[in-house]
Amino acid sequence: MGLQLSAMMEQKHPTSRKTPAMSIQSVSPDSQVATGRPNRAPMIALPAFGLAMAIMAELGIALFVLQTVAMPLIAVWVGIPMLLGVIPAIRAFANLHRRLAWTVSGVEIPTPYKQPKYPGMIQRLRTWFTDPATWRDYAWLIVNAVVGFTLNLLSAVLFLCSIFYLIYPFLVWVTPPGVFDELFGLVHVNPVTAFAVWPIALGFFLLWLKVGPRLMRANSLLTRSLLGPTESARLALRVQELAETRAETVDTQAAELRRIERDLHDGAQARLAALSMNLGMAETLVDRDPAAAQQLLTEARESAGQALTELRDLVRGIHPPVLADRGLDGAVRALAMACPLKVDVDIDLPGRPPAPVESAAYFAVAEVLANVVKHSAATTAWIQISYENEGLHMIVGDDGIGGAEVSPGGGLHGVQRRLAAFDGTLTVASPGGGPTTVVMELPSALKPTT
Amino acid sequence: MRIVIAEDHALLRDGLIRLLEANDFEVVEAVDNGPRLVPALVEHQPDVAVVDVRLPPTFTDEGLKAAIEAREKVPGLPILVLSQYVEQLYARELLAGGSAGGLGYLLKDRVSNVAQFVESVRRVAAGGTAMDPEVIAQLLTRSSREEPIQRLTPRESEVLGLMAEGRSNAAIASALFITEKAVSKHTNNIFTKLDLAPSEDDNRRVMAVLTYLSAR
Question: Is residue A63 within 8 Å of A138, Cβ to Cβ?
Fold first, then answer.
């Protein structure tokens, strides 16, 4: 009986609640919000942002100076407390600009900082000094004070110029003679003739419309080149991620093999041994005591039957035959049919994923469904599988009591870890009282079905 | 009784042949792969065929597909499908074409109970049904939460299960150690409670019950 399903069941995890087709839509956007960002600023707010960022660019010089001064002062210890204050301030300042780059120009800049491996002040300082991101921040403060300042200010000034020429007639009217009535110091104007500058206002406005946002975008891209992770930092992160998932995969595989070995040893192997013993005894008894031999043969047959049942369950846990026969589509349908709940299945796949991905997807769905049966108290569940954005998109929902979560050691956490080996993800939406929806994404190519 | 066998494992094939010939079946052909199966069935039109689901060349559900295809070509051809594992999905596909002329779907393990297995083969040959207890158990678990099924007494549920496997009243009676009269009383109760039209014809009765259970 130690098969896949029972192994699944051991890992606890409450899942739950009915979700009709409608809430599928409500879930996907939710999961994006979690990783998403605040809204973009409207176009009309850009001059204000530009002005503010130009001012901040100059304030950044102060931070640059502080760090410059603090570093040599480490020699006399004063520098250490200074740096403990200055570096976090610079990072907060840089983080603000990373967010602003998205707000004003839609440029996403991930945070590249290394986390100290061990606690402690000295460790923190050492991590800061060995982190290239620290020095790139430092350089950026100066670049931003010059280039960032210019670009942002220029963008804001274009807009302000158009405003200035728009209200120019009004200025002529309210100010005493000699302040604004000499246009460009050449032409004398009165409040009425001053309206002749409106085409200039329009010209500046159009120029701002065309160039203003681009100047800010240019600045955001410049910011990204210094504040974003370098290619090697990105690769280092990826390598770390891969090393972790690989280690987990190896662990899982080893545990799986141990389980299979144990199941075979305690199950089928023991039964076959008993069976051959019974047969041997029957052989010696058949002439002397046919009735006893008959009894032993019956026992042998029963023992063989049980061995077959155990082997069948074991095979189902390793690779369900119906998955080999019919692919994910048929296997999930078979799973739904064998489930004690009513399960609605909606599968739309234009082909078959490679075997390892298919198997991972099947066991993920099977385990989540087993969770539903075990914990949700649901009466209906539904499974939806489609192919979107070059990956399998799988949703399992139910109308149970909700409250499911991914917690260490839990069933859903196990699924999440196994999907991670394929760069897959699992997210749960399960408010108390339900319904529960588990969304799984598994990137994969598809082979067209033959 | 003429029989065609499809089984790719030589040991099992020989065993089946020996077992069936010992029980007065005449094995007219024993094939070991999928592509040869349909022509063999159409050519011999045997009284019954025993077919393994997994066959070369693809080693997937070759035998099942061949059985369905053969029954399309020769309507009412009695076929008993054997498999290392049973899936409701496959049971449903087999039954989709109707069980006219006899149809069976059993775990390979059932062969070890020779008397019962031979009885199943004969039943299918005679136009009856032989569904594996495991398929029926799954169907019953699934519908056990439903209202009408819950109104059945434990004894009636047992009778329902055996009836769904395709057993006759006599067989049910001997399996449960009750009289045939008691069995028919139980079946009448079941049909009333499930709101099914009663039928004396064994085969129609099985179909009604299976359809009822699979619809849940």
Answer: no
**Does the distance separating the beta carbons of B61 and A325 come in below 8 Å?**
yes
Percent with pLDDT over 90 in chain B: 44
Contact present, A329 and A349 (Cβ < 8 Å): yes
Closest by Cβ to B112, choosing from A304, A338, A342: A304
Minimum Cα–Cα distance from A332: chain B residue: B89
Cβ contacts (< 8 Å) between A338 and chain B: which residues?
87-88, 138, 142
Q: What is the pLDDT of residue A258?
A: 92
The interface predicted TM-score of the complex, written ipTM, equals 0.82
pLDDT grade for A170, boundaries at 50, 70 and 90:
confident
Residue in chain B lying closest to A334 (CA): B89
Does the distance separating the beta carbons of A305 and B61 come in below 8 Å? no
Task: Pick the range with the lowest mean pLDDT from A1-15, A68-82, A270-284, A289-303.
Answer: A1-15
Written as six digits, the tokens of A215 are: 């100047």
Query: What is the pTM (predicted TM-score) of this model?
Result: 0.67
Residue A404 pLDDT exceeds 90: no
Does B184 contact A at CB distance below 8 Å?
A: no
Residue A283 to residues A280, A294, B22, Cα–Cα distance (Å): 5, 10, 22
Is residue A26 over pLDDT 60?
no
DSSP H stretches of helix in chain B: 10-22, 34-44, 62-73, 88-96, 114-125, 133-143, 147-150, 154-165, 169-176, 180-193, 202-214
**Mutation target vs A (from B109, B111, B140, B144; most A CBs, 10 A cutoff):** B109
- Chain A to chain B Cβ contacts (< 8 Å): 48
As a whole number, the mean pLDDT across chain A is 83
Closest CA to B87 of A336, A305, A355: A336
Q: Say if residue B39's pLDDT is above 70.
A: yes
The pLDDT assigned to A46 comes to 85
Q: Mutating which of A297, A309, A337, A380 best tests the B interface, going by the most B Cβ atoms within 10 A?
A: A337
Peptide bond into A119 cis (omega under 30): no
| CA A6 – CA A4 distance, rounded (Å) | 6
Nearest chain A residue to B114 by CA distance is A301
C-beta atoms of A325 and B60 within 8 A:
yes
Kindly tell me if the per-residue pLDDT of A113 is higher than 90. no
Contact A337 B138 (CB under 8 A): yes
Element (H, E) at A383: strand A380-388
pLDDT at A293 (0 to 100):
93
Cα(B173)–Cα(B159) distance, rounded to whole angstroms?
A: 9
Question: In the predicted model, what is the mean pLDDT of chain B?
Answer: 88
